[in-house]
Amino acid sequence: MAFRCQRDSYAREPDDHGTINDISVLRVTRRGAQADHFTQTPLAPGTKVQVRVDWERRFDHMQQHSGQHLITAVADQLFGWKTTSWELGRVRSVIELDSPSVTAEQVAAIEQSVNEKIRARLPVNVRELSLDDPEVEQVRGRGLPDDHAGPVRVVTIESVDANMCCGTHVSNLSDLQVIKILGIEKGKKNKTNLAFLAGNRVLKWLERSHGSEKALTTLLKCGAEDHVEAVKKLQNSTKLLQKNNLNLLRDLAVHVAHSLRNSPDWGGVVTLHRKEGDSEFMNIIANEIGSEEILLFLTVGDEKGAGLFLLAGPAEAVETLGPRVAEVLEGKGAGKKGRFQGKATRMSRRAEVQALLQDYLSTQSAEE
Question: Is 186 helix (H, G, I), strand (E, B) or coil?
Answer without folding.
Answer: strand
